[in-house]
Sequence to fold (261 residues):
Amino acid sequence: MSSILVSQEAGVLSVTLNRPEKLNAFDPEMHKLLRQALAQARDDAAVRTMLLTGAGRGFCAGQDLSERNVSAGAAPIDLSVSLGSNYNPLVRRMRELPKPIVCALNGVAAGAGANIALACDLVIAARSASLVQSFSKLGLVPDSGGTWFLPRIAGSARAMGLALLGEKLSAEDAERWGLIWKTVDDDKLLAEAGAIARALASGPTKGYGLVKRALYASWGNSLDAQLDLERDLQREAGFSEDYREGVAAFMQKRKPSYKGK
Ligand code: LHQ
Fold:
């Protein structure tokens, strides 16, 4: 059984983390397959949105903790190797993908799993889902972007509380705190997240990629630099076929037919 399930329909590449017996904790194989799926999403023009979810009752429990020998006599483990080769490239690729990534957060997301959910562009969560920065329970530091996302989105006090206490944050609180887009009833999750993914997949893909660039760059930019960036990205967006189509459709009072170009 593959640890990632991938299918493609109506412009949406659906990727399901598939180690449900371990709440979809990451092992190297799962990293490799997820990297491949992201490369497919980037390179295949027919893919215009990626939808990420987990099989079973969890989204992802972070690193598979059964993988490493941490017994007293065992050699010390250099965790930076795994971050450098797996988690950091994953988060970078997600952010750099010039197409939207929708997360259907179906259950608990812990450790790196929580921060990989937060690295998605839109998170739709089942009401019973939760996020937990479980790192501190192991004496570790939030990774996979957690120390960057949390203070910026939730503010310093909440980021510190989540990181130090390692308590579960319910999907509803995550929505209230602005960490995720919205919470829906459990039995509606896949339908709602799928509908959003399909709507995005028939939208102006090129423009969406530029929106990602602008918003993510803003976190490190002054207003001055951001105004310049908006000017440059709008120039690019204005050269797209979809911009012409959007304006033409508006003027002709019809639905636009975007090609993603
Ligand atoms: C697991 C796991 C798991 C293996 C549940 N591994 N089996 C990056 C770089 C390198 C190294 C270090 O770390 C990192 C980043 C990280 O992600 S560090 C953080 C790693 N993750 C965690 O600390 C979370 C550990 N899991 C939990 O705290 C709980 O399982 C949560 C809160 C996620 C869910 O609790 P429950 O709903 O009560 O489920 P459970 O604990 O009963 O788990 C179900 C099964 O899944 C169970 O197996 P079993 O055979 O007993 O049914 C767990 O052992 C297994 N599982 N997480 N990370």
Notes: The pocket of LHQ is lined by residues 22-23, 25, 61-66, 79, 82-83, 87, 108, 110-112, 132, 134-135, 138, 140, 143 (CB under 6 Å). The chain has a mean pLDDT of 97. The beta strands are 4-9, 12-17, 49-54, 58-60, 101-105, 108-110, 122-126, 130-132, 168-170, 182-184. The two ends are 36 Å apart (CA to CA).
